Amino acid sequence: MAETHTMDIKRIRADFPVLDVEVKPGVKLVYLDSGATSQKPVQVIERMNQYYRAENANIHRGVHKLAEQATEDYEGARGKVAKFINAAKAKEIVFTRNATEAVNLVAFTWGRANLQAGDVVVLTEMEHHANLVPWQMLAAERGIRLEFIPVTEEGVLDMSALPGLMELKPKLVSFTAMSNVLGTITPIAEIVKAAHAAGALAMVDGAQSVPHLPTDVRALDIDFLVFSSHKMLGPTGLGVLYGKEALLEAMPPFMGGGDMIKRVKLREFSTAGVPHKFEAGTPAIAEVIGLGAAVDYLNEIGMEAIAAHDRELTAYALERLEEVPGVWIFGPGIEHKSSNASFTLKGAHPHDVAEILNRHGVATRAGHHCAMPVHEKFSVPATTRASFYLYNTKEEIDTLVEALYQVKEIFK
Amino acid sequence: MDDLYRELIIDRYQNPRFSGTLDPHTHSYEDDNPVCGDHIRIDLRVDDKDIVTEAKFTGEGCSISQASADLLMEKITGMPVAEVRALAKQDILDLLGIELGPVRLKCALLSLKVLKGGVYGLDEVMSLDELAES
User: Fold this and answer.
1) A126-164: buried (b, 16+ CB within 10 Å) or exposed (e) per residue?
2) Do A367 and B14 touch (CB under 8 A)?
3) What whole-number distance in Å separates Cα of residue A382 and Cα of residue B39?
4) Active-site residue A370, yes or no?
5) How far is A387 from A364, CA to CA, in rounded Å?
6) CATH T-level topology, domain A9-38+302-410
7) CATH top-level class of A45-300
8) Could you check whether the bond before residue A41 is cis, i.e. omega within 30 degrees of 0?
9) Which residue numbers of A have CB closer than 8 Å to B's CBs?
């Protein structure tokens, strides 16, 4: 395994110009905040520059050379994204503004068409606000009922609660594939299977998992998957909704405007087919093409290799952090997690920890990471999160740990 | 290391002099910094001459938010309400004795926001953004 998945980290790091930045003279950036957003390789940056320098045109309409080229590249990127998650067809990929908008799209269109007062939607206690608040809004508006798969003390989903929840005959089970706070990898196949057996659809929040683990929507039989371009080496301003074709076809449109129509009269319109039905207005063309380049980059390295690398780094980080007296790590052990380590340090608030780490060039994130309920569960208002990706090294984790001892020195 | 974590701030964070609640109190209010989840509650006793006779705070947050709250309670103890109303951003920075970037400035101003917004029931409660620019 280690043989086949060996990555040339030095070569990879050379592709990410930002990693050469000094946060202050003589202090190199140690970027451990990829869970918030990943850095971008020069291949993605240059591809988007190339579009703006030499290819810029609007898509789907023009018959001139550049418009045709832009349309081909935009739709080509859709095909790359589809293949990346093993979707059956490119038209099952809808581009949105971000993963949050993708969840909102499903809640707004599928939710309003299919959910009535009293209908049950099952979520988990470790959701990002993006997969929580849209359903709370629908609950307030429609009177749907929200139920939650509990999180255990260890920080994994309490799967023993699943059969009872499925007896409520939910219409939808929507859950994260990887917690952005605990790093927990959830048993997707098992939950999807239970959801389908109960007659529910299964939606997966892949914002954290898709960048880090191989994803196969057909093998897992996922109905909806949402994820985010900017966490997987692509640009910001772009999210992805995968939906099974028949589901997307049956859903009412999201926003109205150009591109999403077949025909418009003064008082009525008919909608375009999928995916265009859900892409009103000029989309993020450069960003979509950039995401296509990001997918090419990830494929070239290989998602298996990236997953193995992230896991090895996470295991090393957990091991090193555990050595530091006063550090409390949240979430399960390495057998159930990857890609991040959220922790507190006794006597120092996470904000102060992150600020002092920053003086050593170490970029982490402090706060509730848009997942307040899971923090409440573990009775802490905030944590410091170090998150890892394909360009990180064990030496950087050593720098993190050395800097933590400096924090301890200040707050002794 | 610059002086953000100077001795005064660490000392006030670790050993606050004015932490606690007041029962009875004449005023009590609490609020959060939604960005980071820091939380502060302030209890006051104001006498019939409109002088703050006692001030206490409880809260959860970083060293900057907690130390500034402690220093602020010390400053307003014995102060006429009219003067308390006139306190502004610069007074907090003077108490801390440091310069702060835009993010940490809001940590520092949370206690002032609670004091101004709630305790005195000012008609126009300033947001942290407005306070930071005041």
Assistant:
1) bbbbbbbbbbeebbeebebeeebbebeeebbbeeebbee
2) no
3) 12
4) yes
5) 7
6) Aspartate Aminotransferase, domain 1 (3.90.1150)
7) alpha beta
8) no
9) 347-352, 355-356, 359, 366-368, 372, 375, 381-382, 410-411
Residue-level pLDDT, tens digit, chain A, 412 residues:
444 457 899 999 999 999 999 999 999 999 999 999 999 999 999 999 999 999 999 998 778 999 999 999 999 999 999 999 999 999 999 999 999 999 999 999 999 999 999 999 999 999 999 999 999 999 999 999 999 999 999 999 999 999 999 999 999 999 999 999 999 999 999 999 999 999 999 999 999 999 999 999 999 999 999 999 999 999 999 999 999 999 999 999 999 999 899 999 999 999 999 999 999 999 999 999 999 999 999 999 999 999 999 999 999 999 999 999 999 999 999 999 999 999 999 999 999 999 999 999 999 999 888 888 998 898 888 899 999 999 999 999 999 999 999 999 999 8
Chain B contact set for A367 (CB, 8 A): 35-37
User: Does any domain span residue B134?
Assistant: no
Two tokens, residue A68: 């045709």
The answer to whether the Cβ–Cβ distance between A372 and B35 falls below 8 Å is no
Closest residue in chain B to residue A353, using alpha carbons only: B62
How many domains would you assign to chain B?
A: 1
Residue B65 belongs to domain with CATH number: 3.90.1010.10
Within a domain: B118: yes
Residues of chain A found within 8 Å of residue B10, distances taken between Cβ atoms = 410-411
Optimal mutation site among A24, A346, A349, A409, interface B, most CBs of chain B within 10 A: A349
> Are the Cβ atoms of A411 and B14 closer than 8 angstroms?
yes
Describe the crossing of helices A42-50 and A285-301 by its angle, rounded to 10 degrees: 150
Q: Which two tokens stand for residue A180?
A: 């952005």
Is the CB of B86 inside 8 Å of chain A's CB atoms? no
Q: What is the DSSP letter of A3?
A: T
The domain containing residue B29 runs over which residues? 3-126
What's the CA dihedral at A296, A299, A303, A304 to 10 degrees? -170
Domain ranges of chain A: 9-38+302-410, 45-300
**Six token digits for residue B37:** 């989840």
| Tokens linked to A27 | 């202090």
**Can you give the pTM of this predicted structure?**
0.92
CA distance A192 to chain B (A): 34
Burial class (CB in 10 A: 0-12, 13-18, 19+), A185: buried
Indicate whether B101 belongs to any domain: yes
Residues in chain B with CB shorter than 8 Å from the CB of A410 are 1, 5, 10
Q: Which residues touch A264 (CB under 8 Å, ≥6 apart)?
A: A270
User: By three-state DSSP, how is residue A193 classified?
Assistant: helix
Residue of A nearest to B64 (CA): A352
Q: Say which DSSP state B127 is in.
A: P
Task: State the smallest CA–CA distance between residue B123 and chain A in angstroms.
Answer: 30
Judge contact between A377 and A150, C-beta under 8 A.
no
